[in-house]
Structure to design on (383 residues):
């Protein structure tokens, strides 16, 4: 790990408040391979991960897309698999070019990754430290928070607004020394949107030297605008995209970071190793299917709407969502409801400490949700 902690890198880390002891701790953490447990999106899919889900169970716990990869992606995987004995770097370059074209950005504004959790964690390493806090929503996706704690950076949690949006003014004011403000839109776990105008405002009012890390993992499930215009305008913004959600590629691993080259360079210094060629091939093929996103968005919205109608009919409170997950409010500790549903072979998500009586549920197939509806009525029935 010498190359990570030498010369300008050490000086840069020291400027963010890391001491020699911090360097040694982080180096040992990385060398031991422990970082992979934090750095893997599949491992982070996540605290709601269950190691022994029985065959045939209803799995609506990890925000996966049960539709899986589209046929064009599977065909691309098959072609790449026949040459899997080679690294196939050309597939990575093809993916970057496809992403650049799709986003309307220069090629040097795109870095390919195996999913989006790697650049999320590496952005924390690149921009945060003991003197440079990590600012996030509460409740929000915890991956960046976990990375910040490894680095020794303060984690500042800002509650969502009454409409379940990110409180951008409170986030901007959380610390004048913030290194990174993380905004997931739609938010995970609530599935709620932060208005475009609020995101633009935040990009224009960042503390000095701070980066807005905008996670658009779920954005394609909504009609909300993509925020790539902020990058074209030269803002201090890095956008994360993943193919794990709308494209149904959680197991294939493909994603990207979008931003100004100098920001991406700082993040990519923490990367190593080749990318999964099968995932790159599948992602490139997926981008070439013109109606894929719209059709899947419509289907997910229909199933989500049917579940919301069921919840309303049965008096179950929930947070209105625009994503493939939502939060239901429970009359008892959420963890108890999670355990009770498992007795009916239905596995839902988890509970956030700040919302102990809410449980995250993923949107599955119609069959999945029908089984969830039946199980929920049973566990909520009076004793």
């Amino acid at each position: 790990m010498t190359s990570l902690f030498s010369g300008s890198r050490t000086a840069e880390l020291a400027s963010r408040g890391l001491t020699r002891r911090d360097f040694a701790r982080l180096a040992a953490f990385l060398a031991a391979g422990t970082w992979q447990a934090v750095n893997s999106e599949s491992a982070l899919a996540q605290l709601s991960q269950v190691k022994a889900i029985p065959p045939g169970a209803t799995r609506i716990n990890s925000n996966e897309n049960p539709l899986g990869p589209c046929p064009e992606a599977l065909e691309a995987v098959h072609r790449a698999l026949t040459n899997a004995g080679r690294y196939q770097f050309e597939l990575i370059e093809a993916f970057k070019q496809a992403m650049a074209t799709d986003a309307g950005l220069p090629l040097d504004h795109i870095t390919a990754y195996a999913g989006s959790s790697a650049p999320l964690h590496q952005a924390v390493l690149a921009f945060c430290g003991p003197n440079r806090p990590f600012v996030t929503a509460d409740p929000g996706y915890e991956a960046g928070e976990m990375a910040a704690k490894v680095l020794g950076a303060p984690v500042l949690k800002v509650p969502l607004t009454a409409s379940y949006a990110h409180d951008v003014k409170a986030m901007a004011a959380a610390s004048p020394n913030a290194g990174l403000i993380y905004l997931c839109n739609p938010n995970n776990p609530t599935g709620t949107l932060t208005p475009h105008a609020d995101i633009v405002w935040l990009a224009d009012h960042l503390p000095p030297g701070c980066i807005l890390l905008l996670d658009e993992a779920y954005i394609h499930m909504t009609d909300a605008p993509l925020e790539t215009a902020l990058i074209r305008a030269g803002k201090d913004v890095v956008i994360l995209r993943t193919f794990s959600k709308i494209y149904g590629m959680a197991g294939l691993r493909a994603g990207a970071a979008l931003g100004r080259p100098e920001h991406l360079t700082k993040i990519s210094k923490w990367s190593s190793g080749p990318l999964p060629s099968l995932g790159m091939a599948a992602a490139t093929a997926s981008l070439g299917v013109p109606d894929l996103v719209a059709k899947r968005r419509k289907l997910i919205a229909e199933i989500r709407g049917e579940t919301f109608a069921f919840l309303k009919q049965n008096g179950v409170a929930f947070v209105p969502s625009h994503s493939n997950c939502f939060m239901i409010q429970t009359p008892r500790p959420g963890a108890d409801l999670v355990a009770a549903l498992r007795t009916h072979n239905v596995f839902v998500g988890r509970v956030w400490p700040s919302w102990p009586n809410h449980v995250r549920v993923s949107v599955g197939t119609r069959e999945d949700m029908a089984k969830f509806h039946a199980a929920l009525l049973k566990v909520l029935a009076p004793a």
Remarks:
- Residues 2-33 form one domain.
